[in-house]
UniProtKB/TrEMBL annotation:
Classification via Gene3D superfamilies: Luciferase-like domain (3.20.20.30)
Keyword Lyase: no
Coiled-coil residue spans: none
One cellular component term from this protein's GO annotations in UniProt: cytosol
Organism listed in the record: Gemmatirosa kalamazoonensis
Protein's UniProt name: Luciferase family protein
Length: 345
């Protein structure tokens, strides 16, 4: 395990028990947690993107703000729903945020998940072309985004421009060198993981995936990662790809930990679950790990997907506040991660 970061869904609710009661709270606390996580030694700060929900939605102002407040930590998404995105405008936003951060963006993009409203992307002005599904549209947007990130000129310049142009066709500005190799595809199936490999994207695999065999979740996810790596190599890409997996992992080191998560075994949260995420997709959901640190080390060593990946993203309960989330991250980094090979070299 080379890198360990956190993944926040950025929920907020005005409920009295929540430490995150507004969108302003969610944004400010996300920035603060990234700063604290960097100080603790974490490698990455990642954020989920949802629309029409009391969650983080527009990622690039947040990523740019974190980039301006931090120096080392990777800053990313897991994932941006490409059904909602204008690829060219997104490339400009991503380029600006990456330059502010000094080349630390790691952008996870995907077809997305079931949303709060029916066909929400239609309200953003997008619809599948004739014969396309919404998933096809998301992949089309992704391919256009990857193409413009290459930084090659494609637009014919005005012969009488307001400002002087460089020679030749024009590209989008600002261009962020290297960002094209730091795009990840959030994949729930083996087939889309292989598609992402052929396009030279990194792979993000979450806490759920399509239920494609009778194996446990972590074994199915490990098979997906191996299929992805084989497809990446077969495509002839020169670099070594990166792979992340997300997990809900809580080390029980304090009374507060035991109060929040100590009864997960009694609630059947320590087992995989299988269900339907929409009318066509049957998925398997990974377990939550919550135990004393020595028990966690034993359990996580048996997780085949963690062993296959190079990056682990820890989902955090952001509505419990920055201090408690920082404690959750620190407990894993201090008491669990070294035994999994993190920074052992």
């Amino acid at each position: 395990m080379k890198s360990i970061g956190f993944l926040s869904f950025g929920h907020w609710t005005p409920a009295p028990q929540s430490h995150t009661r507004s969108a302003a709270d969610a944004l400010a606390q996300s920035i603060e947690l990234a700063v604290v996580a960097e100080a603790l030694g974490a490698d990455g700060a990642y954020f989920r993107v949802h629309h029409f929900a009391r969650q983080l939605a527009s990622p690039f102002p947040l990523l740019a703000a974190i980039g301006a407040r931090t120096k080392r930590i990777e800053i990313g998404t897991a994932v941006i729903d490409m059904r909602y995105e204008n690829p060219l405008y997104m490339a400009e936003d991503a380029g600006a945020a990456d330059l502010i951060a000094g080349g630390r963006l790691q952008l996870g993009i995907s077809r997305g998940s079931p949303e709060q409203v029916v066909d929400g992307w239609r309200y953003f002005g997008y619809r599948p072309a004739e014969g396309e599904t919404e998933a096809d549209m998301a992949r089309r947007h992704a391919e256009a985004f990857l193409e413009v990130l290459r930084g090659e000129g494609f637009a014919r310049p005005n012969p009488r421009p307001m400002f002087p142009n460089p020679p030749g066709l024009l590209r989008l500005e600002p261009h962020a060198p290297g960002l094209r190799d730091r795009i990840w595809w959030g994949s729930s199936s083996n087939a889309t993981a292989q598609w992402a490999a052929r396009l030279g994207m990194n792979l993000q695999s979450s806490t759920l995936k399509d239920h494609e065999s009778n194996q446990p979740f972590h074994a199915q996810q490990a098979d997906q990662i191996r299929a992805y790596r084989a497809a990446f190599e077969a495509a002839g890409h020169a670099r070594t790809p990166r792979v992340s997996v997300s997990r809900s992992i809580f080390a029980l080191t304090t009374d507060a930990d035991r109060r929040y998560f100590g009864d997960f075994g009694d609630r059947d949260e320590d087992q995989d679950h299988v269900g339907w995420i929409d009318a066509r997709t049957r998925a398997i959901f990974g377990r939550t790990y919550a135990a004393e640190p020595d028990v966690l080390v034993t359990q996580l060593r048996e997780d085949e997907a963690i062993a296959e990946a190079d990056t682990l993203l820890l989902t955090i309960p952001n509505q419990l506040g920055v201090d408690y989330c920082a404690h959750c991250i620190d407990a894993i980094l201090t008491h669990v991660a070294p035994a999994l090979g993190w920074r052992s070299a």
